[in-house]
Structure formats: C-alpha cells, structure tokens
Amino acid sequence: MKTIPTTELETITGGAASKNDAVTQQLTALQGSIKDLATAQSKPADNSMTTMMMMMAMRPQPQQTVVAAPAASPAPVVNIDTRVRR
C-alpha cells in the first residue's frame, strides 16, 4: 500500500497549510443564515390575511329558500258589458 506523506495529507484534509479564515467565516455566516431561514419558515405565519381567510371560511352561509308556485287556479273572470243604454 502506498504511504502518503504527512504534509500532503494535511493539504488534502484542510490542515494548517490550506487554512483560510475569510472563507471559513463566510461559510459560517452562510450556514447561520440558512438555519435562521429554516427556523422562520417552520413557524406558522401570524398575519391578518390568514386570520381573515379563516374567518370567511367559518362564517355561517346563508341558506337557500325554496318557494313553491301556487297551485294552478282558474283565471279570474271579468264581465264586460258592451251594450249601450239610452
């Protein structure tokens, strides 16, 4: 099996030879931002629009009233006298 020198191993695994504090700080800040976003997204939103939509959905709906037509009755009879009296 091939032996890897210690200096080369440190470079590959991110030892002291390849350490970059600026990159590490940026990655740490990015990781914190992602964690904050995930936490904020998991919490339910408490806004007035959500509350109003729930109130509209839960309100009592007006009931439809069905009115039956009256039974068919004969039309009224109007007597008109066309005689002319003198």
Notes on the structure:
The protein contains 3 helices and no strands. The longest helix is centred in the middle third of the chain and has 22 residues. The relative contact order is 0.04.
Q: What Rg do the Cα atoms give?
A: 44 Å
Give me the strand/helix succession.
HHH
Largest sheet: none
Please work out how many helical segments DSSP would assign. Answer: 3
Q: Could you say which structural class the secondary elements and strand pairing correspond to? A: mainly alpha
Spans of at least 5 consecutive residues with low confidence: none
Task: Present the secondary structure layout.
Elements: H1 6-12, H2 21-42, H3 48-58
Main attributes of the structure:
single chain
Task: Give a concise summary.
By secondary structure, this protein is mostly helical.
